[in-house]
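Long-time lurker, first post. I've been practising inverse folding by hand and with some scripts of my own, and I keep getting stuck on stretches where the structure tokens seem ambiguous. Below is the full token string for one chain I'm working on. Before anyone asks, I'm not after the true native sequence, just a reasonable design that respects the backbone. If someone could post their per-position residues I'd love to compare against what I wrote down in my notebook.
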């Protein structure tokens, strides 16, 4: 199915969604500006994310199965829910004609599997409904969307945020532990003549604490990787 083959019902709803404005022209700080600021998005990406949110809403009504959004679309949905009159009265009451609830996962392996399958079906329905591939930066693959991650609210006026190196996710825990073991051996070779670290001076002192820092860094990274695998991704559904 493409837009040329939509039923009159689908076409009518899409026309309503396209004409639906989330921004208030009288607001100094409108919906798009808030969405852009809270997520660190450019205005152009924000506009695209809102458009994809509208496509998600059409899928929620006509895909024929529960749907799950990508992370960017989910952020638009989260913020829209805060604008209660716009969401419940205008969108659900006047445009969709029924409530559309946001249902986060309850957690656990079964829920994770269900949402992965649901998201894949959403991508498939997107292709069928719109006759094109969903944009990868807004609708990532299932593997990327459900990769282990830990999200936090961060006040960027008080904290710096630095991206992790691109190669870091490819490092396996066993490799990191091997490197740590080698570092331990090297440290022992340096300090084998004297195990009292408080007596170290000069080069021995610097080498000992260099290797100690490297070991601590690697150990913390391994623990973080293990902990991340234990965190189930939280997805939403319509």
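-- Answer (accepted) --
I ran through it position by position. Result:
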């Amino acid at each position: 199915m493409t837009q040329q083959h939509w039923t009159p019902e689908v076409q009518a709803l899409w026309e309503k969604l396209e004409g639906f404005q989330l921004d208030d022209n009288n607001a100094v700080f409108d919906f798009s500006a808030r969405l852009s600021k809270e997520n660190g998005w450019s205005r152009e990406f924000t506009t695209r994310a809102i458009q994809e949110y509208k496509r998600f809403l059409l899928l929620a009504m006509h895909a024929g199965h529960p749907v799950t959004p990508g992370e960017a679309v989910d952020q638009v949905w989260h913020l829209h829910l805060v604008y209660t009159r716009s969401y419940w009265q205008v969108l659900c009451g006047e445009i969709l004609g029924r409530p559309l609830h946001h249902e986060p996962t309850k957690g656990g392996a079964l829920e994770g599997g269900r949402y992965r399958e649901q998201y894949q079906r959403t991508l498939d329905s997107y292709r069928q409904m719109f006759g094109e591939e969903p944009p990868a930066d807004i609708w990532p693959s299932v593997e990327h969307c459900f990769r282990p991650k830990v999200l936090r609210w961060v006040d960027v006026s008080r904290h710096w945020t630095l991206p992790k190196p691109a190669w870091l996710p490819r490092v396996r825990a066993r490799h990191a532990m091997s490197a740590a073991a080698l570092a331990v051996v090297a440290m022992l070779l340096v300090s084998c003549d004297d195990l009292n670290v408080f007596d170290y001076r000069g080069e021995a002192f610097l080498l000992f604490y260099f290797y100690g820092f490297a070991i601590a860094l690697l150990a913390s990274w391994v623990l973080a990787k293990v902990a991340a695998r234990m965190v189930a991704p939280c997805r939403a559904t319509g």
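A couple of notes from the structure itself: The chain has two domains: 3-145, 168-229. The longest helix spans residues 202-229. Happy to go over any region you disagree with.
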